[in-house]
Structures are given as C-alpha cells and as structure tokens.
C-alpha cells in the first residue's frame, strides 16, 4: 500500500444505539479506519459503556476501546470537535447519496440506531446529510463501515489521505 500524507480526521457519533454488539462493531470500524474518537449518546446502551463491559463485547475484536477515546454524551452536539463538519447519515428527502458525497477534511459522522431516526433534533444542526442507497435499512455497524470505507477509498482515489474540503 502506498504511503500518503495524512491530513484531517474524522470522529463518529452514535445516537442512542440499540445493542452492545453494534457499538462494539462500530468502535472496531472507527479503529480500523483510523478515527480520532467515537461518542455515544442515549440511554439504551448506557449500562454497557464501562471499560470492563466494553472489553467483553465480542464484536470489538481489535480492542479499539483501549486505543481511541470513547465518550458518553447527553447530546452529541456537546462533543462536536471545533471546526469539524457534522455529517448525519440518514435516509431522508434531500440527503446526498454517499456515492457522490465529497467528505470534509474534518468530519463528525453521526449515525442513529436502525430502529429510529435522527430527526430534527440532530439533522437541524448538521451541515450535511448523506444516505446510502439501499433497498432497506442497514444495520448501524454496517452503515458505519460503509461510510468510513467510502471516505478512505475516495481519499486513496484522489491520491491523498484527507477529505475534499
């Protein structure tokens, strides 16, 4: 693999994820794709967010929780990194298809649980809203992997390891 100059970063926010398995798999994806951090909001998963419990989640086989920050937040907007573009991943009218999306250099990707929507509560403060064209709703962890792979693939295609903004 060619060496590239790394510029920019991304972080991931999960809004009220449903299962520890999805959180573990998303955390693994953030680690594999060299993310800066992951934040989790909501109450459904709050009982399983201690380091001890994260260490028992079999979907985080890379033990990413030991190597990158994982934050708990009441509101994901509270952990939005400075000068970072909030990008909601949601199937809604007006969203941009992932295949044509130009990833920002500094992105905070926000994903919701597969049994809920992000709604105006989050979409209202996101600069970009992106969707993955599918025949149905994808699993949370699968969606995280697809978006992060797309970011990396487009960076490699353009000969740099940063976003397009």
Structure, explained:
The protein has 165 residues and is α/β, with parallel strands linked by helices. It has one domain (9-157): SPOUT methyltransferase, trefoil knot domain (Alpha/beta knot), CATH 3.40.1280.10. It has helices at 20-32, 51-54, 119-123, 140-157, and strands at 9-15, 37-41, 70-73, 85-89, 96-97, 106-112, 128-131. The protein has a 7-stranded parallel beta sheet, covered by helices on one side. Helix 1 (20-32) packs parallel to helix 4 (140-157). The longest helix has 18 residues, at 140-157.
The proportion of residues forming helix, as a percent range, comes to 10-25%
Beta-strand share of residues? 15-25%
What's the end-to-end separation, in Å?
A: 24 Å
Number of domains in the coordinates? 1
The H-level CATH homologous superfamily, spelled out, is SPOUT methyltransferase, trefoil knot domain
Q: From N to C, what is the helix and strand string? A: EHEHEEEEHEH
* Mean pLDDT over all positions: 84
CATH topology: Alpha/beta knot
- Counting helices, strands and paired strands, the structural category is alpha/beta
Structure summary, number of beta strands: 7
* Major β-sheet profile: 7 strands, parallel
CATH class categorisation: Alpha Beta
Q: Which radius of gyration do the C-alpha atoms yield?
A: 15 Å
CATH 2nd-level architecture: 3-Layer(aba) Sandwich
Uncertain regions spanning at least 5 consecutive residues: 161-165
**Largest sheet strand order:** 3-2-1-6-4-7-5
User: Helix tally?
Assistant: 4
What is the general shape?
A: globular
């Amino acid at each position: 693999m060619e060496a590239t100059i790394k510029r920019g970063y991304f972080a991931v926010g999960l809004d009220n994820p449903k299962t520890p398995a999805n959180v573990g798999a998303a955390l693994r994806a953030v680690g594999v794709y060299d993310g800066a951090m992951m934040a989790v909001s909501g109450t459904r998963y709050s009982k399983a967010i201690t380091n001890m419990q994260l260490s028992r989640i079999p979907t985080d086989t890379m033990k990413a929780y030991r190597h990158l920050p994982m934050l708990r937040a009441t509101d994901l907007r509270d952990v939005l990194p400075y000068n970072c573009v909030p990008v909601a991943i949601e199937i809604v009218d007006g969203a941009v298809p992932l295949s044509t999306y130009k990833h920002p250099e500094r992105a905070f990707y926000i994903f919701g649980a597969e049994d809920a929507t992000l709604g105006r509560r989050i979409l209202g403060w996101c600069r970009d809203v992106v969707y993955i064209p599918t025949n149905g709703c994808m699993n949370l962890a699968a969606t995280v992997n697809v978006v992060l792979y797309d970011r990396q693939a487009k960076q490699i295609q353009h000969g740099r390891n940063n976003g397009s903004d």
